[in-house]
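Bench notes, bay 3.
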Amino acid sequence: MDRIAELPQRQTGPDEASPETSGKSDAYPREWHGNHRINLRTTLPLPSGSWYVTLVAGPERRRKGRRQEERKKYPLETVPNLLLLLSVGMFSAALLLMIAALILIHGFGWSIELTIPSS
């Protein structure tokens, strides 16, 4: 039996098109099929509410027209995306600097002593 036929119809709001009028089956939940080599999904509990984070990667299989269409619909050059990239870049740079400093300190046999002056 067809899995889509078994799914209950989702209630549509006043500003959502019904499947009968739009020609699309928006009444059914979308399923993401694919065998992605990297598929990380998690939820972050934040004070403002939970946020989901997804990282999916693998060989590109979409045709060129679909990629161009999605790039127009979901542009990369948005303020939240740029802030995220800047944050990840700064965190990565700080981590690499700390690792490099530890390698240099350990490699030259240097030691770091922390002293707290007494008052």
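Next record in the batch:
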Amino acid sequence: MFERVDDRVSVIFSPEERSLLGQIPDLLDNVTEENDPGFAVLHRPLYPDDPDSSAELAGLIDRDLQRERDRDRSVISRIASGERTVSNQDARRFLRSINEARIVLAARAGAFEVDASWEQNISTEPALAAVAWLGYVQGELIEALSDDR
């Protein structure tokens, strides 16, 4: 799936996997409603006990955070479109987007509201199957980035 060579990472996905990856930017771009469980996990208060400070800090960093998230998601789009080699930095951007997609999907499926038994529903819940597959992808990329070559 991934192989690191110097400062580059080779990316190998099937057309079906690329199709799934191609859905991630839209998924994340559409997390805009405050009542969406995915919104709650992506926009946690920075100071849970101090809403005013949280709002102030969010106002200072939200624009930069969104710009970085857009850059991260562009890497997913490029890989979904067929790009087969990315820089280590872009691989890390890919990793961040995969992580965001996993937590949004898991939150929407209620996986944070139950114990680890959610894994038993992977075969019947497509969102949970996606969470599991993205976790596998994440682990493979972390391993590739950790290789000392």
